[in-house]
Structures are given as C-alpha cells and as structure tokens.
Amino acid sequence: xxxxxxxxxxxxxxxxxxxxxxxxxxxxxxxxxxxxxxxxxxxxxxxxxxxxxxxxxxxxxxxxxxxxxxxxxxxxxxxxxxxxxxxxxxxxxxxxxxxxxxxxxxxxxxxxxxxxxxxxxxxxxxxxxxxxxxxxxxxxxxxxxxxxxxxxxxxxxxxxxxxxxxxxxxxxxxxxxxxxxxxxxxxxxxxxxxxxxxxxxxxxxxxxxxxxxxxxxxxxxxxxxxxxxxxxxxxxxxxxxxxxxxxxxxxxxxxxxxxxxxxxxxxxxxxxxxxxxxxxxxxxxxxxxxxxxxxxxxxxxx
Length: 302
Fold this sequence. Notes:
By secondary structure, this protein is an alpha/beta fold. The protein has a single domain (4-173, 204-230, 271-286), classed as NAD(P)-binding Rossmann-like Domain (Rossmann fold, 3-Layer(aba) Sandwich). It has 12 helices and 12 strands. Strand 1, helix 2 (26-35) and strand 2 form a beta-alpha-beta unit. The longest helix is centred in the first third of the chain and has 22 residues, at 85-106. The termini are far apart. The relative contact order is 0.13.
C-alpha cells in the first residue's frame, strides 16, 4: 500500500519543471499562480536573469535543467522600442536567441511568446493565418518577427505563439498591462473619457483563457501558431461592450468617445485566425464571450 506521503513524493519526482522568464510580467505572474501546484516552476524576473547576457543565460538554464522554458521576457512598449532600437534589438532579438541557444544545449523545449503586431504593415484585411506573410512596420514588430526566424533556425523543439492583445484586471502583487477592459474600468472610476478608434480591428484575449490552454499547447506539434480570441468588432465596439457588461450603459457617452479619424485612410486590421489551433482541439473564447467571462470572474458589475 502506498502512503499519502509516498504518493506525494512520487508526484514531486515526476512533476515537470518549467523555467519562466519575465516572471514579473502580466502573463507570467498569473501563470505561476495558476500552475504552482502542477509544475515545478522557476520564476526569473528581470533582476534574476539578464537575457542579453548569453553566457549567463546558458549557465542558468543548464543548471536549472528545465523540461520547458516559458519565454515571456520582452520590451513590449512600442514607443520605447522606437526610441531605443538598440535596446529593443538586445532584448527582443538577441535575448530570444540566447534563450533558444540555451534550450538547444540543455535539451529544453521552448514556449516563446510573439505578437500579432508583426502584421501591422499588412494592407490586406485580416484575419491572418500562419500562411499569411507578415509585414512588420514598427521596431517592435520587426524585432519580434526577426526573433521568430532566429528561434526557428536554432531550435526545432519550440512553439511560437503570436498573441493578440491580452486583457485582465488588477490583482494583488501582479502587474496589469494597458488593456481594453482595465482601460475602460479605470476611465469609469476616474471620470475620464477615452477616445477609441472605430477603424481598428484586432483580437483581444482574456489572460486566463490563454493560460488554461498552456498544458494542451505543449502537447501539439512544434511550430508557429496565431493565438487568441477572434472577433469581427472594431475596437470601439469592443469598448462599448465592456461598458455594457460593467452595467454602465447609461454612461457610455461619458466613458468612451468614437475616434473616427485614426486609421481613417487605412483601417488597422491585425486580427488573426486560430483555425490551426482549433483543428488540434485547442479553443479560445470569442472576444465577446471572454469579456463577459472576465467581468463575471472579478464581479466587476457596477
């Protein structure tokens, strides 16, 4: 007969180890809380590991011996990337190369987070599949696209996820990014008014909808995947939906305003298709359903 203590010990022995870069970030901090009892997680924040230091990255991953590396560390502020292209390259390209090299040497599998913004310069309408040729027109998009190519050349055992705009709400000790739900909630609380473009179209994904799919994602074939929720709404229409779900319909005109000038000449359409994942049995909520789920999870109706 196995005792409970022995069963727990056996579970510990076979618990898979995941090393996470950028552990203080929006997704990574939530990943730890969701999976800390399922995986042996090594969480490395910026102060713990400088991903631009190749020797240190190789040493750290070699010594940790992870089964998987979840690479979320990035310079994702598009404005800062434009202002400091060298820093963007160092973090988003060279840092990712270092991680891929270390994974290759340590026989670790890599889950790399890329972005929908590699399609920023495409003039044809979305949604884009993995066969669509990306036309990146920002420093951030160009560097993330270059990182994808470099990783593919270094490491076969990698999943590259092109994420849509992630959203969620503030939580204790966790970073919150600028996102459609929090931006609207914040404006409602502060009495501000947001100008939201009517000529922009993009996917928006609830962070926890992505996180729940991670164990399934690391079971599918390696490769590039457009990842996240789909929708056919403008950014303004999505913001309007958020206001309505919050129970603030009577304040719509005070909280959000239509911005019909931005992208008027050339609508911004960076929507992605996640058909490739769907065909493998991995599903994401539509943006509309995901917003409802987020509001319900946090009990944010006013």
